[in-house]
């Protein structure tokens, strides 16, 4: 397997974020894996927090979204975000769903993966150690944003999104580009039996298992597990980019649920198809 490694570090108006070169080269999308730098939140959410359910003031979170919209060149009402429930549902929002989860936080869908072929929608997924995955099919002009914790990874949520793009937009998996963003790395993801069992049941153990510590604990690699699931879905290894950035290790850049013991903010993975010009 020979996927690409590393994202590009970008900074604009003080906002630090990361992009995939393979996505940038298409010129078709605005996208970002955010860092925690460049926002207005304070305390444990300092400073670029995108989670309204965190210990933060809604006005500050909204200002962070506003800043990111400026960076991406999208409008504030283009965001669509859903409740993340560690399931494998893939949902395709319509134009009328603009604003869900950001401007309108009352009636949110439950879905861990979003897909669209519409420009004017900015898909948002939140993480703070869980794995964010972005997909872009430059041929069918369709995108996806995915939240994959260990449960979602074991449910092959990224592969389910690929299948949904094929069904709905006629995407050919061999055309789809993928970026696996900053998240807890194999260096820091020590787990016990339930995770081991879930990966084994999913057929992802050989990709995920780094080390059996012989005491009922295991080091797991969710990056490789998600890459494996994407390849099982038909993606080419050379179309997959793995950030290789561990949120727990890189405290100067990222929020981390494990490191900060839950007292932390939310990172975001965002992607929007640019409109016809
Ligand atoms: Zn680490």
Q: Main sheet?
A: 7 strands, mixed
Q: Write down the domain tally.
A: 1
Integer-rounded radius of gyration: 17 Å
Mean pLDDT across all residues, rounded?
97
Query: End-to-end distance, in Å?
Result: 37 Å
Query: Which class in CATH terms?
Result: Alpha Beta
Ligand inventory reads: zinc ion
In terms of quaternary structure, the protein is single chain
Q: How many H/I helices?
A: 7
Assign the CATH topology: CNF1/YfiH-like putative cysteine hydrolases
H/E topology pattern:
EEEHEHEEEEEEHHEEHHEEHEE
The CATH homologous superfamily is named CNF1/YfiH-like putative cysteine hydrolases
Uncertain segments are none
CATH architecture: 4-Layer Sandwich
The proportion of residues forming helix, as a percent range, comes to 10-25%
Topology:
Elements: E1 4-5, E2 8-12, E3 15-19, H1 21-26, E4 29-34, H2 58-72, E5 79-81, E6 90-91, E7 113-116, E8 122-127, E9 131-137, E10 142-148, H3 150-154, H4 157-169, E11 177-180, E12 190-191, H5 193-202, H6 205-208, E13 209-212, E14 218-220, H7 222-232, E15 240-242, E16 267-273
Parallel strand pairs: 1-15, 5-8, 6-7, 11-15
Antiparallel strand pairs: 2-3, 3-4, 4-16, 7-10, 8-16, 9-10, 9-11, 12-14, 13-14
The structure holds zinc ion.
Notes on the protein architecture:
- This protein has 277 residues and is of the alpha+beta class.
- It has one domain (4-273): CNF1/YfiH-like putative cysteine hydrolases (4-Layer Sandwich).
- It is 23% helix and 25% strand.
- It is built from 7 helices and 16 strands.
- The strands form 3 sheets. The protein has a 7-stranded mixed beta sheet with strand order 1-15-11-9-10-7-6. Strands 2-3-4-16-8-5 form a 6-stranded mixed beta sheet. The protein has a 3-stranded antiparallel beta sheet with strand order 12-14-13.
- Helix 4 packs parallel to helix 7.
- The longest helix is centred in the N-terminal third of the chain and has 15 residues, at 58-72.
- The mean pLDDT is 97.
- Residues 185, 187-188, 246, 248-249 line the site of zinc ion.
